[in-house]
């Protein structure tokens, strides 16, 4: 699978990213265009597209901090789900760093959310016990509860506080 760094909205694969992004996440979890431009302007932010031959398979949008990588968004093309691309993409990403990889998922409330948690645990993620709310990307939506997952091990309370600070002061700064 080919990795492609998408670093501006005029990139040839930006439209493929944007289409998958808007169909994979609810509106309150999506950056507006100005927010996306802010992210592109931050050296800690990375948007990697993945292609297999001529197919846009998916993407990982992440932030690189001193002690961990935070996956803000990850999605696989709906027509390619269930074919191992998600596991391959995520396992390659995790093995590319010695840092903890951190991401958030919706609370487990149904079979789909249970399957999502099983998928991430199969990829080596641990659940963390912290009550966590993610700020909404849109002013007319409230923050939403999410579960924090990490590779290597559950994080300490101090590490969680650092993540929460980074999330609010760097990742969501533009809001």
What is the chain-wise order of helices and strands?
EHHEEEHEHEEEH
Number of helices: 5
Mean pLDDT: 95
Main sheet overview: 8 strands, mixed
Give the helices and strands, then pairings.
Blueprint (H helix, E strand, L loop, with lengths): L1 E4 L8 H11 L8 H9 L3 E8 L2 E10 L3 E9 L8 H11 L4 E6 L5 H12 L3 E2 L4 E3 L9 E7 L6 H15 L4
Parallel strand pairs: 4-5
Antiparallel strand pairs: 1-2, 2-3, 3-4, 5-8, 6-8, 7-8
What does this structure look like?
With 175 residues, this protein is α+β, with helices and mostly antiparallel strands. The chain has one domain (2-170): Gcn5-related N-acetyltransferase (GNAT) (Aminopeptidase, 3-Layer(aba) Sandwich), CATH 3.40.630.30. Helix content is 33%, strand content 28%. It has 5 helices and 8 strands; from the N terminus they run βααβββαβαβββα. The protein has helices at 14-24, 33-41, 85-95, 111-122, 157-171, and strands spanning 2-5, 45-52, 55-64, 68-76, 100-105, 126-127, 132-134, 144-150. Strands 1, 2, 3, 4, 5, 6, 7 and 8 form an 8-stranded mixed β-sheet that branches. The radius of gyration is 15 Å and the shape is globular.
Structure summarized in a few sentences:
The protein is of the alpha+beta class and 175 residues long. It is built from 5 helices and 8 strands. The chain has one domain (2-170): Aminopeptidase (3-Layer(aba) Sandwich).
């Amino acid at each position: 699978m080919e990795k492609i760094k998408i670093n501006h909205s005029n990139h040839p694969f930006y439209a493929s990213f944007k289409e998958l992004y808007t169909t994979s996440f609810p509106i309150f979890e999506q950056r507006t265009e100005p927010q996306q431009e802010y992210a592109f302007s931050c050296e800690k932010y990375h948007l990697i597209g993945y292609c297999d031959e001529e197919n846009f398979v998916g993407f990982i949008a992440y932030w690189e901090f001193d002690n961990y990588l935070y996956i803000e968004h990850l999605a696989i093309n709906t027509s390619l789900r269930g074919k191992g691309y998600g596991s391959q993409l995520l396992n390659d990403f995790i093995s590319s760093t010695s840092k903890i990889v951190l991401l958030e998922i919706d609370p487990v409330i149904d079979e789909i959310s249970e399957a999502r948690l099983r998928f991430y645990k199969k990829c080596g993620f641990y659940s963390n016990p912290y009550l966590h709310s993610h700020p909404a990307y849109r002013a007319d939506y409230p923050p939403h509860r999410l579960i924090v997952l990490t590779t290597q091990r559950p994080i300490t309370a101090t590490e969680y506080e650092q993540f929460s600070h980074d999330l609010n002061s760097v990742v969501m700064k533009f809001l």
